[in-house]
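User: Predict the structure for this protein chain, please.
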Amino acid sequence: MDTLHKILSCSFLRLGIVCAAVFALLLAEVAAQCNQSIDLKEISQKKVRKYILRKNIDKMQDFSSIHPSFKKNEKETGLKVNEKIFYLRSRLASVWNGYREANPAEAFNSRSFRLEMMIMKKSNDVYYKNAMSLPVIDTGQLYFFDIRLMKGLVNVPMAFEVINIDDTKKVLEVSYIEGNKAQGKQQVQFFDNGDGRTMVVHKSFFKSHSWLRDTFLYPYFHRRLVRDYHRTMEKLVKEKSNSLISLAE
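Assistant: Here is the predicted structure, written as structure tokens:
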């Protein structure tokens, strides 16, 4: 009987150890799933996925720990400036409302860049480019992009936060988040040109640790990205205006 008791005790001990190990593995897997707040499978561009993994953004439960590199009302001392002016053939009110109310998945979608993911810092909600609908632009939103250079031969991940929206002065400002190669902000301001057109002044305030990037690469590629963005927005503004006219008729 003693021998049988010992055998049974060893068997139950081994079974208990195995069950404990399996239970621990299950807990670890559940914990990993709970800690992963971003579904990387929803992000198609691998450079953007790597960017998110490198910064551990996929494991964050509170995105308020992500900070812009440039804050609202912070002075632009020491930053380089790149300015571009566009004229849109629509009135100021239509243009401003069009930029403010555009679907980000459509607004940030051109041949040179594409939105991959958007995060709402205020609510910790995450949206992907293929979502049925995305919230309109607002302060505290984080945007993650795939930048396509040289006709898509080079892909660069980039992220910024919306830091200022001024409906009175008609100003939109975004800042690169901390940790990007470039620091600073982009400011877009809208003016009534007086002839039925709207003048859009797009200023970029930036700096990095590379003289070559700041002097040649950033200004060249940035002008192309900005041009594509405002071309896309002009098209969306016109489509919205035509839609409103049709509804009124």
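The two ends are 96 Å apart (CA to CA).
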